């Protein structure tokens, strides 16, 4: 509506966006950034979700993803759906084959989060090697005057770092760790012609030749539980794993076992198999640094994300333009 237009806003006329549960951008910033839309908040309804969706089935053309999985069942209840916008980089919570089959368009975070996630990956690694969290707790508990010296850490420079998944997050991690004097190698679906880092097609071989593995890839059928005990044993007793991808890429039970039994040197984990639940055995281990899946959460990036989400909805629902961050659903 133009600035000089003084018609009353009729919210029923605004393009509608369904949200099943509030995603982090709404938890932090409410829904003001979607003020040009009518936001249909399923979680505010007293009705069971399937009844609520059945009532709105015909009118819902666009959906903003929440932490909830977008399953085939939910998609079936939304026959008019044409667009899914997710504020995530990962797509593992969306039934992609079904979206592809129905021709539903998807927009995601693209590389909006990559720098922040890479910062946390490096932060977790430095914390594990230099024991920052553990030293903090040592001081706070008043142990410095009584126990004296704090154990030695391990130097970051010179370490051989294997990056699992050299997408935009992996490349940001590589750039940062190269500046710290680390030696970078990577494994990926395919060798990247535009980088000179050594490429490994086998993760076990990458682990054998590395001191650290940083898991940056997305969760797919191929990467599910790809980091298993074989990989951990190949990395060795001093080896460190950092995970900023998805919990399910690592066999968590085996990771816990290797850490508890001293078969792995340490871990920095931002993601877990069964979030928000974290295996309690890890709480007692100083060589493990834990973070509540917050690698992407900076105020600056969340604001950029609100803009991207809004821009995608505006492009599709209002101005009939191409999506700003479309996901290519390859066959
Ligand atoms: O985990 C965060 C994301 O996928 O964006």
TrEMBL record:
It comes from Juglans regia (English walnut). Keywords: NAD, NADP, Oxidoreductase. This is glyoxylate reductase (NADP(+)). Its EC number is 1.1.1.79. One of its GO terms (molecular function) is hydroxypyruvate reductase [NAD(P)H] activity. InterPro entries: D-isomer_2-hydroxyacid_DH, D-isomer_2_OHA_DH_cat_dom, D-isomer_DH_NAD-bd, NAD(P)-bd_dom_sf. Residues 53-321 form the D-isomer specific 2-hydroxyacid dehydrogenase catalytic domain. GO terms for biological process: photorespiration. Residues 122-295 form the D-isomer specific 2-hydroxyacid dehydrogenase NAD-binding domain. The keyword Oxidoreductase applies. Gene3D superfamilies: NAD(P)-binding Rossmann-like Domain.
